[in-house]
C-alpha cells in the first residue's frame, strides 16, 4: 500500500495515511483513461452545427447562360458550391457525438487516473478542509501553503465555505466524491483530498 503524508491547512505535516491499492495502486490503463476523457468531451458537444447543401439553398433554378458559345465554363445553377451564395460541399448537419462506456471501464479509468496522481506525487491529503467563513484570501493562502495553486479539491460532503471561497480562484475547482471524473483529475496539476474523502472514495470504488 502507498503511504502518503497528511497535511493541515497551514501546509504542515501532521501524519500519514495508507492508501488502498485497489483504488490508488492499480495498473494504469492509458487506453481507458483516453477513452473516458474522449467520452466526457464528446458528451459535452451540442452537435447543433448546420450548413445548407446545394439542394437546400434557395434560388438557382434557371441555368445562368446557355451551354455553349459564351466563352464561360458550363454552369447549370448559381447555387452550385463554386458560386458565391451557393451550397456547401459535404455540409455539417446536426448529430449526436455522445457514446457509451461500460461501468467497469469507467471505474477502471477513474482508478487509473487516481493511481497516476499518486505515482506522480501530485496527490495531497489534508487532515481537515474547513473554513469558518467564506474568504477567498484564506483559501488561496491555504493552497499556496500546500503548494497546490492549480488544484482539484475533492470533498466528502457539502462544505459551502470551502466551495464558495475557492469559486473565485480561476485555477481551482471544488468537486465531491460523487462528481469526480477522469477529465478533471488530469486537467489540474494537483489533486487535493480531504482525509474523509479518501476513506469515502475507497469505500465506493474498492
UniProtKB/TrEMBL annotation:
SUPFAM superfamilies given in the database record: Ribosomal protein L4 (SSF52166)
UniProt entry keywords in alphabetical sequence: Ribonucleoprotein, Ribosomal protein, RNA-binding, rRNA-binding
Top-level taxon of origin: Bacteria
Gene Ontology BP annotations: translation
Official protein name in the record: Large ribosomal subunit protein uL4
GO cellular component annotations of the record: ribonucleoprotein complex; ribosome
Listed PANTHER family: 50S RIBOSOMAL PROTEIN L4 (PTHR10746), LARGE RIBOSOMAL SUBUNIT PROTEIN UL4M (PTHR10746:SF6)
Described purpose of this protein according to its UniProt entry: Forms part of the polypeptide exit tunnel. One of the primary rRNA binding proteins, this protein initially binds near the 5'-end of the 23S rRNA. It is important during the early stages of 50S assembly. It makes multiple contacts with different domains of the 23S rRNA in the assembled 50S subunit and ribosome.
Gene it is expressed from: rplD
Pfam families: Ribosomal_L4 (PF00573)
NCBIfam families (alphabetical): rplD_bact
Family of the protein in this entry: Belongs to the universal ribosomal protein uL4 family.
Region entry Disordered, spans: 43-88
GO MF entry, a single one: rRNA binding
Assembly notes: Part of the 50S ribosomal subunit.
Organism the protein comes from: Eubacterium plexicaudatum ASF492
Ribosomal protein found in the keyword field: yes
Amino acid at each position: 500500500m502507498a503511504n502518503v503524508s497528511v497535511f493541515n491547512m497551514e501546509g504542515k505535516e501532521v501524519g500519514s495515511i495508507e492508501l488502498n491499492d485497489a483504488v490508488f495502486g492499480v495498473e494504469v490503463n492509458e487506453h481507458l483513461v483516453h477513452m473516458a476523457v474522449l467520452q466526457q468531451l464528446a458528451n459535452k458537444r451540442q452537435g447543433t452545427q448546420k450548413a445548407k447543401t446545394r439542394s437546400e439553398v434557395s434560388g438557382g433554378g434557371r441555368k445562368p447562360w446557355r451551354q455553349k458559345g459564351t466563352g464561360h465554363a458550363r454552369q447549370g445553377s448559381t447555387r452550385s458550391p463554386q458560386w458565391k451564395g451557393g451550397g456547401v460541399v459535404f455540409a455539417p448537419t446536426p448529430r449526436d457525438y455522445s457514446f457509451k462506456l461500460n461501468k467497469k471501464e469507467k471505474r477502471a479509468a477513474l482508478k487509473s487516473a487516481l493511481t497516476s496522481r499518486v505515482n506522480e506525487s501530485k496527490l495531497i491529503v489534508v487532515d481537515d478542509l474547513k473554513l469558518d467563513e467564506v474568504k477567498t484570501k484564506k483559501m488561496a493562502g491555504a493552497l499556496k501553503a500546500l503548494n497546490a495553486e492549480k488544484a482539484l479539491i475533492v470533498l466528502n460532503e457539502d462544505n459551502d465555505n470551502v466551495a464558495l471561497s475557492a469559486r473565485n480562484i480561476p485555477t481551482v475547482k471544488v468537486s465531491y466524491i460523487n462528481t469526480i471524473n477522469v477529465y478533471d483529475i488530469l486537467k489540474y496539476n494537483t489533486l487535493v483530498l480531504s482525509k474523509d474523502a479518501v476513506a469515502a472514495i475507497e469505500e465506493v470504488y474498492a
